[in-house]
Design brief:
Strand 4 (68-78) and strand 5 (85-95) form a beta hairpin. This protein has twelve helices and 16 strands. By secondary structure, the protein is an alpha/beta fold. It binds flavin-adenine dinucleotide.
């Protein structure tokens, strides 16, 4: 390890590894550090399902060999009473996350990126309004070292362990409300019998068994499964383990807990992205930048998008020789266009869904108030077509749940408003505060309407 780099990436999960992968081979001196020992990098509690489109859109390699545990053809979604099953087609991968992450890091390292495990960023170096590097602790050699870099990439996941130590008030120190996160827990275990259709992920929506979230059953081949649940944070619900133990038999009766492979829980942000990924000398990516999908909590694909956008912004900054927020700002424009605007609209959809009762969901799925295609459209683009809501209004008004439908119409309108507002994202840092206040107002108006 040297004392000076062009880029210091803190964290080697999906976000950090993707940033490094896209920065490699461009003549920059890049250091990536992670607190974990090499063989555990990429190992974190996760459902491990990633849509194929992310790899295609970013020109990244598909998982293969030991990195790929199951090819996915779609998702089966079950209503709380289990009477309705929707099949949403779509290709993806159930991955071995440590193996895939380490592959990216190895490829980056072969192309010149220095990767150091067991090394933790303890605190930022912050001078003249710029992030200038970090004080690191290298556990292998038991030594502290000061590393300076033109750009630091914060990719520390949900811990936000680097940016949280920056002077509060900087836009990149934005925190999140507990209610804008899910507490999630999963186990990976062998199954007692062969799994029928391992190419389908199963999702069980059930407010009783997973309030504000859902249960999943994601096959990892024919006889292994990743099973778990998420519940909304900040609501004072009992511990996630209580839910797991109580309902496991309902959603995973074939799971053989005597042959458990791994277990663990963590938090997932479920909101719009942080208001800016960029500030002077710093870019924030992945869970630390709240990039996960607000509705399903999948965050690996969008962590990759943010890493890609960060790498592009860094390459541009080195071309012009300026590392201020103004130049690194292009990461925001890239991310919002590719994912962030959709995330903002899906945050509203998530807030609506979390307020529904199991009865509402049973009814909505049975009557196809929103259809599979609409759900697919909403999750792919963040658009809930007004026409869908209006059509549903007409059908359902006669059938007895007008309040639900009226709300759905408001949701669709506000989802569109949110996307429009994100399309007007400021082109430089000067107008950020004004724009943020407009976003906050939109959220407040929406919340008031939902609580009526
Ligand atoms: C139970 C659960 C299920 C999920 N299921 C899915 C799913 O099926 N599909 C999906 O796409 N997403 C899923 N997610 C979300 C997904 O796991 C995350 O969005 C994604 O892994 C975030 O990647 P990241 O690189 O931002 O963070 P992380 O993977 O958390 O990586 C952060 C890295 O930073 C390192 N680090 C932290 N602080 C420091 C420091 N100070 N110095 C050095 N290193 C540091 C850590 O060791 C870690 O390796 C799930 C999440 C949970 C909790």
């Amino acid at each position: 390890m040297k004392n000076n780099y062009d880029v210091l990436i803190i964290g080697g999960g999906f976000a950090g590894a993707t940033t490094a992968w896209h920065l490699a081979n461009h003549g920059l001196k890049v250091l990536l550090i992670d607190s974990k020992p090499w063989n555990r990098i990429g190992d974190k509690p996760c459902g491990d399902a990633v849509s194929k489109e992310h790899f295609d859109n970013l020109g990244m390699p598909y998982p293969e060999g030991e990195q790929l545990e199951q090819k996915i053809e779609g998702i089966k979604l079950y209503s709380p009473d289990m009477k309705t099953e929707w099949i949403v087609k779509g290709e993806g991968f159930e991955i071995n996350a440590p193996a895939y992450t380490q592959r990216l890091l190895k490829e980056a390292s072969n192309r010149g990126v220095e990767v150091l495990d067991m090394t933790t960023a303890m605190k930022p170096i912050f001078e003249d309004g710029f992030v200038k590097g970090a004080i690191l602790f290298d556990r292998r050699h038991n030594q502290q070292i000061e590393v300076r870099a033109k750009v630091v990439v914060e990719a520390t996941g949900y811990s936000m362990s680097f940016r949280s130590k920056l002077p509060q008030g900087l836009p990149v120190t934005e925190n999140l409300d507990d209610k804008d996160a899910d507490i999630a827990y999963r186990e990976v275990a062998y199954t007692k019998d062969d799994i029928d259709e391992p190419q389908y992920l199963k999702i069980f929506v059930n407010q009783k068994a997973s309030p504000g979230g859902y249960w999943w059953y994601f096959p990892k081949g024919k006889n292994k499964v990743n099973i778990g649940l998420g519940i909304q944070g900040g609501m004072g619900y009992p511990s996630i383990y209580t839910f797991y133990d109580k309902y496991l038999n309902e959603f995973g009766s074939d799971v053989d807990r005597n042959r458990l492979i791994v277990k663990g829980g963590a938090l997932v942000p479920t909101r719009r992205p942080i208001s800016t990924l960029a500030w002077n000398g710093i870019l924030v990516v992945g869970d630390s930048a709240f990039t996960a999908n607000p509705v399903h909590g999948g965050g690996k694909g969008s962590a990759m998008i943010s890493g890609y956008c960060a790498a592009k912004a860094i390459l541009n900054a080195f071309e012009v020789g300026d590392f201020s927020a103004k130049t690194l700002w292009s990461a925001n424009l890239c991310y919002i266009e590719r994912y962030g605007a959709k995330q903002a609209s899906l945050e509203l959809f998530r807030r609506f869904l979390q307020k529904l009762s199991d009865d509402d969901i049973n009814y909505g799925m049975r009557k196809k108030v929103i259809k599979e295609e609409d759900l697919l459209e909403a999750s792919a683009k963040g658009d809930l077509q007004l026409s869908v809501a209006e059509k549903a209004m007409r059908i359902i008004a006669g059938l007895g749940r007008p309040s639900l439908l009226l709300k759905l119409k408001v949701v669709a309108e506000y989802m569109k408003k949110a996307k429009d507002l994100y399309r007007e994202y400021p082109s430089d840092p000067n107008n950020l505060e004004q724009w943020k206040s407009e976003v906050n107002k939109l959220l407040l108006d929406f919340e008031n309407l939902m609580n009526k």
